[in-house]
């Protein structure tokens, strides 16, 4: 048995072949509003009032055959923000790193660093002037040693009583390090116990210079200080006299930055309780001025 029902919103009537839809909610094909199917008699009319605007003829606008726009599925806020952030970052990265201006700027910078900088720096360097005067320095810890250094150069010192003491002298790219060691001085103690002088021979008999205690100490300390430089090459040591007596000094070269060369001296001397090492280095361009300064500092070394 067929059933007739009407939309309570727009009044559109619907006829169903049986009562299977009665009591169920459907959507009106006319106004797209949902309603519950209820059978109407032949003389019944829908009581609902249309909610949609009427046309000039008093009838609601026809919407039959017009499909509703699909609703856009909303994503969680956090997911949407992450997506926007990724798109923004990708766009910025693409516009920045991929642009010809960026690539050209990087290439120019690399060329400047590899080619231009050394020439610029060498052109601005002024020749180093010899020091006008020297200042006396005496270490504050047990008067461990004293020496002379250029008056306008910077001096720092430190250490512990009965242990390692040190001093550092600097001027621009020139560096001088003075450091004590207790272990190497044991060689001097052995020579002294044999009845000789650690600064000379034993029992009044002169040692061969290569057999002197300070020569052994100087050779032994070579590897330790050579590790501080790249491409370290040292000349044969020569004998000089300082306030500590018999001393060995060697000139050396090493590799500097930008393919430059470092030049310097390494000196070794023995005290009764401590062994002393003096390391001096400077850029090759300053060697002519620094070499006599280095030797002056080494020769001025003595007990405090």
Describe the model.
The chain has 304 residues and is an alpha+beta fold. It is built from 6 helices and 15 strands. The strands form 4 sheets. Strands 7, 8, 9, 10, 11, 12, 13 and 14 form an 8-stranded antiparallel β-sheet that branches. A hairpin with a 5-residue loop joins strand 12 and strand 13 (261-270). It is rod-shaped and about 135 Å long. The N and C termini lie far apart (128 Å).
Ends apart, CA distance between termini: 128 Å
Shape: rod-shaped
* CATH topology assignment of the largest domain: Protein Transport Mog1p, Chain A
Domain module count: 2
Write a concise keyword list for the protein shown above:
27% helix; 8-stranded antiparallel sheet; single chain; Protein Transport Mog1p, Chain A; 304 residues; alpha+beta; 6 helices
Task: Describe the structure in brief.
This protein has 304 residues and is α+β, with helices and mostly antiparallel strands.
List the helices and strands and how they pair.
Blueprint: E1 3-6, E2 13-16, E3 25-27, E4 34-36, H1 77-97, H2 100-124, E5 134-138, E6 145-150, E7 154-159, E8 165-171, E9 174-181, H3 185-193, H4 213-220, H5 222-226, E10 230-234, E11 238-242, E12 245-255, E13 261-270, E14 275-283, H6 287-299, E15 302-303
Helix pairs in contact: 3-4
């Amino acid at each position: 048995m067929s059933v007739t029902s009407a939309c309570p919103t727009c009044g559109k009537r619907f006829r169903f072949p049986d009562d299977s839809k009665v009591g169920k909610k459907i959507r009106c094909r006319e106004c797209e509003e949902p309603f519950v199917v209820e059978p109407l008699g032949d003389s019944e009319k829908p009581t609902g009032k249309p909610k949609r605007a009427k046309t000039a003829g008093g009838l609601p606008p026809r919407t039959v055959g017009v499909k509703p726009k699909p609703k856009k599925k909303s994503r969680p806020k956090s997911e949407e923000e992450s997506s926007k952030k990724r798109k923004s970052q990708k766009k910025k990265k693409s516009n920045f790193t991929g642009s010809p201006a960026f690539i050209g700027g990087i290439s120019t910078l690399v060329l400047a660093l590899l080619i231009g900088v050394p020439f610029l720096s060498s052109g601005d360097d002024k020749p180093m002037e010899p020091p006008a005067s020297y200042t006396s320095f005496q270490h504050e810890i047990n008067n461990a040693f004293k020496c002379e250094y250029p008056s306008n150069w910077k001096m720092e010192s430190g250490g512990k009583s009965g242990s390692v003491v040190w001093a550092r002298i600097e001027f621009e790219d020139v560096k001088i390090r003075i450091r004590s060691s207790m272990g190497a001085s044991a060689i001097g103690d052995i020579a002294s116990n044999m009845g000789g002088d650690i600064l000379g021979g034993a029992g009044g008999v002169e040692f061969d210079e290569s057999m002197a205690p300070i020569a052994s100490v100087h050779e032994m300390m070579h590897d330790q200080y050579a590790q501080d430089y790249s491409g370290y090459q040292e000349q044969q040591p020569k004998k000089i006299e300082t306030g500590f007596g018999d001393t060995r000094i060697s000139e050396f070269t090493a590799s500097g930055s930008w393919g430059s060369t470092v030049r310097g001296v390494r000196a070794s001397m023995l005290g009764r309780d401590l062994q002393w090492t003096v390391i001096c280095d400077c850029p090759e361009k300053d060697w002519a001025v620094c070499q006599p300064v280095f030797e002056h500092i080494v020769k001025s070394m003595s007990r405090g």
